[in-house]
Structures are given as C-alpha cells and as structure tokens.
C-alpha cells in the first residue's frame, strides 16, 4: 500500500513538473505594458562577469537565468528547434548569421532601445539588424620561443616536419581548412572542390604535426605542445598563467591573414521577454560595464569605447599585441559546399 | 467466464507489462521511427531537415571513409571488450567468493568512482601523465629518464581510459553469475579429484558463460558508440563512429546523414548480436 | 600432508586475488584521488600543479551555481532511479510472466537505447518534445534519463527472476493473500538483489549523464555534468574538484555510518534473541 501511495505521489510530482514549467513561462510573457521580470540567456560559460549580472538584476528588478553551451552547434540546435520558447538571448557567431537570418530563426532588433550599440565598431558587424556583437576572437599561432624548433612566420611553417607532435590545435572543418587554403594562396572561404582537395592534402601534413586538438592552454603551459593554433583569449590565459616565466610569443606573420570571429547575441524568433533583452543588450554595450567585464574576461572586444575605457592591464595584454590585427579574414557561409568540406574533414580524421 | 479471464489474466498483464510497454513505445519506438524517417529526407542548406524524399544519405554511406570508420570502431570496441573480460573475470571471481556482506560492499566500492564526473576523471589521467605532470616529474627526479616521456595522447592512455570506464559493466554481470554458482558443485568436483584448473575449465567457466555473454554485450555495444574517451585522451586526432554521428547532429549539422548512420549502427549491432548468439548457441537474449 | 599443501595453495591463491583486486581498485580510484588533490590547486583552471590552497572550498560556499547544479543532478538522479526501478521491476515481472501480443517487439525495443548512441535518442526526443509543445526542463530531462535507465533496470532484474518463484506466488495466493500483498511479501524480496543493482545502475547512469541533459535542459537549470561540459572552452575550475571531493567524503561517511548502524542493529537483535 505504501508503495502505491508513493507511486501516486511521484506521478503527481511529475505532472507538477510539467504544468509548473509551462505556466511560469506563460505568465512571464512580456507585453508592452508590463515590463518582464525574467531573462533567459544561452551563452558560453566563463564569458560574462557574475557581478555585472547581479547588478543588472538589481537595476531592473529581474531574474537573469544563464545557461551554457558546450559547442557552437548547441546554440544552432536550440535556435532551429524553436529556441524562442525557452530563451530571450542566444549567443552564436558571425559565420552562422547569414543562414540564421535567411532561415527566419532570429528576430529583428529594435536599435532605438539600444543607444549604446553605437559604441560597436561598424566594420566588425555583419547582419547588423539582427545581432549585437559581444566579444571577438582572433585565431592565430602562438609558440614557445624556447622549445619550438621552428620560428613561425606563416601557415606553411606549420607543416615543417620538425614540428612533428608539437602543435596543439583548435578543431573543426571551418577552422582548419581556411588556414590551409590561405597557405596555398586561395580564398579562405573557397567553394572550389579542387582547391579544397588540395587543402586536404596540406592538412594531412599538418595533422601529422598536431599532438592534440583542443586543450591548447593546458598543453602549452605544461609543455606538451610548443606551438598552438588557438584563440587570442586562450593564449592570454596561458601567458598570464605563466606570468614572469612567459616564453610564449605570437607568430610574427608577414603576409598571411588570421581568422577573426565574433560571438554575438541574437534574439530567437518568438522570444518572450524582448523588452528586457533589449535592456540587457544596452547594458552590456555600455562602455563602463563592458570595460569592467574585460577585467575579468580579457578577450578582444569590438566595442571601441569600452576598449578605450578598459584597464591598462587589458590594453597591455601581450596576447593582443601583434602587428597584423587588420590583416584578417572572416568565416563566410559556403552554402552546400559545406558538405564537401565535411567529407574531406572526416577523411582527414579517419586516416588510412 | 470471459470476465473472469479478463480479471485473472488480461488485467494483471496490462498492469505489469503496460507501463514499460507504453514507455518504450512513446519514448523509444516513436523517436526511432522519426530517426528512420529523417534518414530518408534531405539536408537543407542550413543543416535543417528538408522533408523531401531522398536516398542521398544512404548513398553517402557507400563512401569508403565510413566503411573504414566502422571497421576501426569495431576493432577498438573488440579490443576493449576482450581486455575488460580478461581483467574483469578474475576480479569478479574474487568478489563473488567473498561472504555476501563483504561482496556487496566491494561492488559498491566499484561504483563510487562512477558517481563523479566522467570528463573530470578522464582529465585526471591527463593531469597525472602530462609532460610536467607528477609521473614525469617523479621519473625525472629519480633519474630514470632524462627528458619527459610523452604518455598523453597515446593509444595506451586511450585504452586505460576505455577500460577504467567500461570495467564495471563487465564485472557486474559476471559477478552475479559466478555468485549464483553453487559451492557444493565445485566442492564435489574437487572431492572427485579434479584439479583446480580442471574444475575451472569444465565447470566454473561453462556455467558462468551467460554472465560473460552479458558482460560482452554490455561492454561491446557502448564502446562502439563512445567518443569522449578518444576525444580527450587521444587528443581528438582519430574519429570513431560515435564521433561521426555526434558531429552530424552537432557541428556538421547533417541530420539525415546522422540518422542514416544511426540506422546503420543499429543494423550492424543487431547483426553482430544475432551472429554471436547463434555462434554461442544462446537461445534467448534474456540471459542478459 | 596433501591437505596442508592444498591449504597452502589456497592461501596463496587468496593472497594473489587480494593483490590483484587491490591493484584494480587502485586504478579505478587513481582518477578520483587526482581529482581530489587538484581541488587544492592554486590555479584558476587546473592545468598543472601550482601550489596548495584552500580558496576553492571558500569559493564553493559563496558560489551557489555549482552546488545548485549538483543538487539538481541529485534530485533528477533520485527521481529517475525511483521511476525506472518501479517501472522496470513490474515490467520485468510482467514481461517474464505473461504472454501477450507484441511482447517480442517490446523486448527488442528495450535494446535500442543501449545500442543507439545517446545523442541520436536525445535529438529525436528533443524534436518530439518541441513538436508536442512540452516545455523543456526537469520533466524532459527525467523522461530522457528514464528512457535509458529502464532498459538497464529491466535487463538486470529479469536476470534475477527464477522459475520457482511462481509456485511460491501461487501458494501465497492460495493462502488467501491478494495480488499486491503477494507482490510485496513474496515476489519483491526474492528479486531484491536485482532491484538493488538496477537502482545502482540507474543512479550511476543518470548522475553522470551529459548528452541527454544537455539536449533536453531548459533555460533555468543545468545539471553538474552539463555545467562541467560547458567549461570545456576554458578549463574546469578547481571549485568543481572541491565539490566532488566533498561529495565523495559524504558518500564514504554515509557508508561507514550505514555499516555502523547495521552492525548495532544486528547486535541488538542478537541480544534480544538471547533473552
């Protein structure tokens, strides 16, 4: 009998779970008249200062729910699966914007409510009506000047056999193929299959030199790798971790451009608390707020006014001190050619 | 009369087998039908599913890359399974021969590490063996080696990770089947003059075969789909079938192809189990 | 003469077995000990050993996010275990005892969640939940977890049901006990070991699950494994190690207490018997 009762209790509890969730989101639906009191954001972990969130909550008498992705693809899955049901702001990156807009997965943003957006550098802004850039990443080469057998000045230096088992690299077809294409003198967003096939051959040699994909900071600081193809933010961690013993230097590229990518906020179709989302976007683009955020998370930032207002430590960060900052390329949508990239990428990783 | 059969037979069978059947139909059959359905659809420009019939995904599977990946995955899962069984059997035997009270505690002791996060456990191996890690430092300080050894991102470390991850699945079923063995039978064999080895090969091993069978299934099948271990300890340099399927649903975003690969994986696994049960002359899968 | 040699051999075998098992336990526990050790690491992320600190334990008590997500994981794991074991137990009995149309089909279906990579089930469930308008959250994570726990529970419990159980059940019913009484007093005790290992397995699978939880989570809460996975861009912060260390200590203390209480109860029972 006890069991029966407990089973009954459990089933009531489960029912409660569903109805509970359903009603709470419904009642919180934001209209024009009443300001929303809840904001649901989906973004990277370790990417925004907790203190700033608390302050925003206090100022707006609202609750901010942060949940975190582990992969860019997570955000896309949430967006395409009807993310507006759950989230008011989703972080994604510039490379996806074109398709997201085309697919109708994101809302247009009313910039009248976000005056601070003017602080953002226009030249770093794609799909301007639909997103607000947050932070950005250069994907470049750093190496340990004491242990690396090669002084790196171009992508082609990375396939030098002397570097066998020395490189810690980021992963993903759309991060690896562009450097091969650039090294071969082609467009980094090539849609020509022959060029992609050539890039594949280049990457086979590169792959031989890679010790591990991912974990770049860890492998650089503990000596497993002497070269890393990684984000400037991660290089910054590694350098500050090593402190006075820092022997990491940014590769002194003479000609080759580096990839620049943005993490930006979009409002998913059908978001429920747009008013609060706009307030949040305006808050985070405020130069002082962003400058405070950069103390804790010293990444490159497209918000010029915020960079101006940032601390000296931030401005003098060795990880952002390189000459070819303007010589960048962006990841562009390659349409259906993406399947060709993916096929070669898989071939690369499967090997013989 | 008819009402009586209803009350005696239909009602209890409905009450008992009903919930599990309903759950399986709602949350396994339906999703699987959907997966099969989208495997015949086409991929949209943005990786969304376009509901237009196409055999494209299955045509892609004919590419030799996938054949290689599947062979490689089966090989890795096979090695893991064999090692887990070989290492796990004596261990299970040792536990099963302990008094019941002690045995249950020993089993619990196997499970506890698995309540901690698996990614962090895997990372521990990296922290331990990395170039400036404790193991290398120790070896350097004792003068065994002059330069740090590279333990991380090697096949050896991947195997360590695989085995430590899968061992409980091997030990649990073998333990319960060894424990069921009646002691008197073994004693009788010994009394009749059989040596320890003879008893083991003629009695213990054959009688515990169902447990070994379950262990093989419970280790082999998940090993076939696992990808976190090779990703973390192998440095993500090698893709297995699990990675490829995950990537189709994740970064690559080709759901129809991912679905077709899943269907292929189910068919292959089903086939392997079928051949295996025939070969091992096991009538019923219920030994699991 | 021969007997003593036999005993000697037995003792040697016993010793070898102990050494072997200790070695296996050591290998299983090495990662856990490393994890605990690095909870005292003086570094923002655990890259290498950088000196001793206890700051992460202090941070842990000021940072409710990590503790909150552990709590969320535990609640889900307990609920998933209770649901899976309940459905699994009566399901295993029903599937073993009764013949009905479609039984073979259900039996085969039970293998699907074990075979199919979790991500496939997770994506399929996500799409179906969204199509029927179920809001994502604890409920959907629970369904996901139960979907892979139930098959393991059924399989484990089915292995424990023996044929002679039926005659006992019938005897009990002949003696006038109703179905529920019979189930509670006769059937359940006989399959208890299976039920226990099913519970263990379900809890273990649920508490460490990341794929289902990641896909099916709503906006408000995430489980600890999902939180840890999302740290992969930078690295896991040592406060998570601190939390794990506390958790392990908690389990060990609970085990010792449990053991202690059981022994005390046994002693009392014996004493009462003697009186």
From TrEMBL, chain A:
The keyword NADP does not apply. Pfam families: SBP_bac_8. It comes from the Bacteria. Keywords: Periplasm, Signal, Transport. PROSITE patterns: PROKAR_LIPOPROTEIN (PS51257). GO terms for cellular component: periplasmic space. It is found in: Periplasm. One of its GO terms (molecular function) is polyamine binding. The keyword Hydrolase does not apply. Residues 1-28 form the signal peptide. CDD domains: PBP2_PotD_PotF_like. GO terms for biological process: polyamine transport. Its main location: periplasm. This is Spermidine/putrescine ABC transporter substrate-binding protein. It comes from Sedimentibacter hydroxybenzoicus DSM 7310.
UniProtKB/TrEMBL annotation, chain B:
This is ABC transporter permease. It comes from the Bacteria. GO terms for biological process: transmembrane transport. The keyword Thylakoid does not apply. The chain crosses the membrane at residues 20-40, 76-95, 107-130, 150-175, 207-229, 255-276. Keywords: Cell membrane, Membrane, Transmembrane, Transmembrane helix, Transport. It is found in: Cell membrane. Residues 70-276 form the ABC transmembrane type-1 domain. Pfam families: BPD_transp_1 (PF00528). Belongs to the binding-protein-dependent transport system permease family. CysTW subfamily. One of its GO terms (cellular component) is plasma membrane. PANTHER family: INNER MEMBRANE ABC TRANSPORTER PERMEASE PROTEIN YDCU-RELATED, INNER MEMBRANE ABC TRANSPORTER PERMEASE PROTEIN YDCU-RELATED-RELATED. It comes from Sedimentibacter hydroxybenzoicus DSM 7310. The keyword Transmembrane applies. InterPro entries: MetI-like, MetI-like_sf. PROSITE patterns: ABC_TM1. It is a multi-pass membrane protein. Its main location: membrane.
From TrEMBL, chain C:
InterPro entries: Bact_Polyamine_Transport, MetI-like, MetI-like_sf. GO terms for biological process: transmembrane transport. It is a multi-pass membrane protein. It is found in: Cell membrane. It comes from the Bacteria. The keyword Protein biosynthesis does not apply. The chain crosses the membrane at residues 20-40, 70-93, 105-130, 136-155, 183-207, 240-261. Pfam families: BPD_transp_1. Its main location: membrane. PROSITE patterns: ABC_TM1. One of its GO terms (cellular component) is plasma membrane. Residues 70-261 form the ABC transmembrane type-1 domain. Keywords: Cell membrane, Membrane, Transmembrane, Transmembrane helix, Transport. Belongs to the binding-protein-dependent transport system permease family. CysTW subfamily. This is ABC transporter permease. It comes from Sedimentibacter hydroxybenzoicus DSM 7310. The lineage of its organism: Bacteria, Bacillati, Bacillota, Tissierellia, Sedimentibacter.
């Amino acid at each position: 009998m006890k069991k029966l009762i407990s089973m009954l209790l459990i089933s009531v509890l489960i029912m409660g779970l569903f109805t509970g969730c359903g009603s709470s989101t419904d009642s919180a639906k934001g209209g024009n008249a009443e300001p929303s009191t809840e904001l649901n954001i989906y973004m990277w972990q370790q990417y925004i200062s907790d203190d700033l969130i608390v302050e925003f909550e206090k100022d707006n008498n609202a609750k901010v729910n942060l949940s975190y992705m582990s992969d860019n693809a997570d955000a896309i899955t949430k967006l395409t699966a009807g993310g507006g049901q759950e989230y008011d702001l989703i972080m994604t990156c510039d490379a996806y914007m074109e398709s997201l807009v085309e697919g109708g997965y994101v809302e247009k943003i009313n910039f009248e409510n976000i005056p601070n957006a003017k602080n953002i550098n226009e030249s770093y802004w794609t799909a301007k009506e639909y997103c607000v850039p947050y932070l950005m990443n250069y994907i470049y080469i750093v190496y340990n000047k004491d242990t690396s057998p090669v002084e790196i000045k171009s992508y082609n230096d990375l396939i030098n056999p002397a570097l066998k088992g020395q490189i810690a690299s980021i992963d993903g077809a759309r991060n690896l193929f562009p450097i091969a294409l650039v090294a071969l003198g082609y467009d980094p967003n090539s849609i020509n299959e022959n060029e992609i096939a050539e890039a594949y051959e280049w990457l086979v040699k590169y792959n031989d030199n890679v010790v591990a994909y991912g974990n770049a900071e860890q492998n650089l600081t503990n000596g497993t790798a002497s070269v890393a193809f990684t984000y400037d933010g991660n290089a910054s961690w590694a350098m500050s971790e090593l402190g006075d013993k820092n022997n990491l230097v940014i590769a002194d590229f003479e000609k080759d451009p580096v990839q620049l990518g943005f993490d930006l906020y979009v409002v998913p179709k059908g978001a429920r608390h747009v008013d609060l989302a706009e307030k949040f976007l305006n808050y985070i683009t405020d130069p002082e707020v962003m400058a405070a955020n950069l103390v804790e998370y010293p990444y490159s930032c497209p918000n010029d006014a915020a960079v101006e207002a940032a601390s000296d430590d931030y401005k003098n960060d060795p990880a952002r001190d390189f000459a070819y900052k303007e010589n960048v390329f962006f990841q562009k949508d390659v349409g259906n050619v993406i399947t060709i990239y993916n096929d070669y990428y898989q071939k690369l990783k499967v090997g013989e | 009369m008819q009402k009586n059969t209803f009350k005696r037979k239909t009602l209890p069978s409905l009450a008992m087998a009903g919930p599990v059947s309903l759950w399986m139909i709602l949350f396994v059959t339906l999703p699987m039908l959907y997966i099969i359905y989208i495997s015949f659809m086409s991929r949209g420009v943005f990786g969304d599913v376009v509901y237009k019939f196409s055999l494209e995904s299955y045509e892609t599977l004919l590419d030799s890359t996938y054949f290689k990946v599947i062979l490689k995955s089966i090989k890795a899962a096979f090695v893991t399974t064999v090692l887990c069984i070989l290492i796990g059997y004596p261990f299970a035997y040792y536990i099963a021969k302990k008094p019941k009270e002690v045995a249950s505690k020993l089993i619990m002791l196997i499970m506890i590490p698995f309540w901690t996060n698996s990614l962090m456990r895997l990372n521990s191996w990296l922290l331990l063996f990395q170039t400036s890690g404790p193991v290398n430092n120790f070896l350097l300080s004792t003068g065994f080696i002059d330069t740090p050894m590279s333990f991380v991102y090697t096949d050896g470390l991947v195997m360590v990770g695989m085995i430590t991850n899968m061992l409980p699945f091997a030990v649990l079923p073998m333990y319960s089947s060894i424990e069921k063995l009646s002691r008197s039978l073994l004693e009788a064999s010994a009394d009749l003059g059989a040596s320890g080895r003879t008893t083991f090969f003629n009695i213990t091993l054959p009688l515990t075969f169902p447990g070994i069978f379950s262990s093989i299934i419970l280790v082999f099948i998940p090993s076939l789909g696992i990808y976190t271990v090779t990703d973390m300890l192998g440095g993500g340099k090698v893709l297995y079938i699990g990675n490829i399927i995950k990537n189709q649903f994740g970064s690559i975003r080709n759901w129809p192809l991912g679905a077709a690969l899943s269907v292929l994986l189910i068919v292959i696994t089903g086939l392997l189990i079928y051949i295996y049960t025939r070969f091992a002359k096991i009538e019923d899968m219920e030994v699991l | 003469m021969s007997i003593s040699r036999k005993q000697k051999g037995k003792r040697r075998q016993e010793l070898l077995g102990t050494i072997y098992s200790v070695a296996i336990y050591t290998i299983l526990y090495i990662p856990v000990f490393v994890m605990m050790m690095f909870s005292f690491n003086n570094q923002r992320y655990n890259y290498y050993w950088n000196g001793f600190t206890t700051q992460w334990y202090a941070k842990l008590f000021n940072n409710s996010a990590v503790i909150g997500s552990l709590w969320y994981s535990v609640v889900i794991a307990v609920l998933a275990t209770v649901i899976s074991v309940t459905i699994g137990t009566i399901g295993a009995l029903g599937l073993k005892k009764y013949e009905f149309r479609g039984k073979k089909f259900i039996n085969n279906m039970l293998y699907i969640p074990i075979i199919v990579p979790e991500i496939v089930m997770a994506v399929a469930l996500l799409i179906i939940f969204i199509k029927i308008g179920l809001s994502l959250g604890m409920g959907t994570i629970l369904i996901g977890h139960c979907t892979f726990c139930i098959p393991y529970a059924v399989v484990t419990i089915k292995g424990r049901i023996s044929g002679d159980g039926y005659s006992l059940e019938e005897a009990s019913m002949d003696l006038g006990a109703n179905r529920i009484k019979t189930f509670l007093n006769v059937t359940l005790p006989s399959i208890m070991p299976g039920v226990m290992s099913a519970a263990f397995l379900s809890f273990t699978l649920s508490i460490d699950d990341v794929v289902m939880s990641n896909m099916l989570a709503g906006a408000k809460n995430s489980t600890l494994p999902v939180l840890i996975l999302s740290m992969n861009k930078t690295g896991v912060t040592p406060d998570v190690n601190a939390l794990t260390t506390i958790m392990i200590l908690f389990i060990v203390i609970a085990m010792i207490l449990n053991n202690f209480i059981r022994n005390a109860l046994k002693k009392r029972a014996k004493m009462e018997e003697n009186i």
